[in-house]
Amino acid sequence: MIETKKRKRILRSPPRAVYVALCIFPVVLTALFYALRPFTGVMDWVSLHIAAPVRTFLGIVTSIFPFSVMEVLFTVAGIWLIYYIVKTIKLTIRERGARIKTLSKRLIFIAVLAFYVWGSFCWLWNSGYFARSFAERNNIVPQGANAAELIELTQMFARRANELAPLMTRDEDDRFNEDRREMFAVSTEIFDGIAAEFPELGGRVFRPKPMYMYSWLMSRTGYTGIYFALTGESNININAPGVSIPATIAHEIAHQLGVFTEDEANFVAIIACIRSGNIVYEYSGLFLGLSHLLTALRDADYQAWLDVWDSFVPELRQDFRDAREFWDSQRTVDTGIGVLDTILNALNETVYDAVNTVYDGFLRVHNQELGLQSYGACVDLLIAYFLPPVA
User: Which pTM does this prediction carry?
Assistant: First the structure.
């Protein structure tokens, strides 16, 4: 009987080599990515033949659920991590004779898990940063913009936005008030208008997910959406100004479809919205485009910027003011209690700076030299597309 129990225990315990292999595998996987990422051809092949199909499969699985699986995973992971840290501390204190061994095992487990997550993310998403860009794949060559071109395109966007702004549903205070549920409902059709021009954007689209738990945090840190490759989901900050949500949805869908860099995702979102045949999406795309164009124009020619701003119809001007007021409000906390407000505002600013510093560093390390400024670099792409040079 004793011999049988021993035999069962032996059968149930994997060899030490298996444990070692499971620990080494994610490290090798991650190291291999960093070794191969300078080779554009390899990253092109990986992005197209491995990463894209896997992300599509993950999108199919997670699309079954009406909520953001990413939000749930982040919440569960956060709770589990706190539990794991507390338990590690307890075990380390309790096992006096084997503290180093216990602590080492638990730290190794966390490190291996982190390598599995990061290695997977590198191959499924970061590989796209080192493949050919959307502009390169579609022969869009930005040449830089002169002031005349910048003025012309800004005026073009402003004219159409002025036509559409009064057509938007508005509340009693004349503020943008289109149905947000409808924005999500029609989202999978928005790219139909440009799929013929850009066939790679004709792939399968999964409906973006509203973020119910973390929209407040995204607002506080200045973000409107996030695409998470490990679940294949586009996640949208539903607390953001309504006028921005359709363009944000299009931006995150662009990521779904393999547009990796932020300037190109903005560019694709703008033209997808404009060509969508849906006036709410078109207006939101024009609004996003104008946001970038006006920023560039203000630096290039302040008087021209002022002339464009003065040409806005009241509704369009109101939408810009509301958006600015919303984002400004997210940078401050006002409870009416002086000391508490000081503490909370300091914490809010610290979190904002930390998140943006980390993400800026992430973008720069992953082949986006402008970092967070890449969000505004789509202006050159817009000019190259809408105002191509005359041969």
Answer: 0.86
